[in-house]
Structure formats: C-alpha cells, structure tokens
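REQUEST FORM: STRUCTURE PREDICTION
Request ID: SP-0412
Submitted by: Lab K.M.
Chain count: 1
Length (residues): 115
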Amino acid sequence: MDTSDKCPKCGSEDSYQDGSLMVCPSCFHEWNPEKMSEVVAEDTSIKDAHGTVLADGDSVSVIKDLKVKGSSSVVKVGTKVKNIKLVESTDGHNISCRIEGIGAMNLKSEFVKKV
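STATUS: Completed
RESULT:
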C-alpha cells in the first residue's frame, strides 16, 4: 500500500478511494492524495479550556474545583495562577505552576482559562 493511502489523521491503512478522495473508515477523515505531497504539520500548541493558546509566563484561572492528590486541599474555582510554565507530559498535566497556599503543582490545561 502506498504511504499516501494511509490516513494522515489516524494512520489507519484501511482507507479506500471514493471518487478523487481517499476515505478512512476508522475516523471518517477524507483527503486528496494528490495534495498530500505537502507535509501535514501537527499542532503541538497547548490550549486552555476555551481554545486560547497558552505560553510560558501567562496567568490563568482555574475553571473547576480540583482535588489535590495526597492532600485534603482543594484548588477552588476562580483561583488565579500567575507565571505558568508549559511542560511536555504523557499524563496530560502540561502546566507547571505554583499556587499560593498550596505550593508547586502540575495542572491540566483543560481545567484553566487564560486571564
């Protein structure tokens, strides 16, 4: 199978041709194999709960009560976190920060919004 027949979205090799387009039955992505010579760049930017791109040094606000693992503390809704640092993580905790009264911790970007 040609590499242009692999789905660029999910990598499935079960794609089939439908007219001039290729279709992936796994994720239902459609693409034109003639235009696949362009490299598809993956968006690696970290976004908050509303889709705003975050950067190192931003200030964010927590949008959901978050229990602190190993403690009886809770990070309340509306807690403002200043000077965040973005980190790569396999468990989804992609923001490293320091919260006043709690200390250093990691947060998931899906539970914050940019201030």
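NOTES: The two ends are 48 Å apart (CA to CA).
Reviewed by: T.R.
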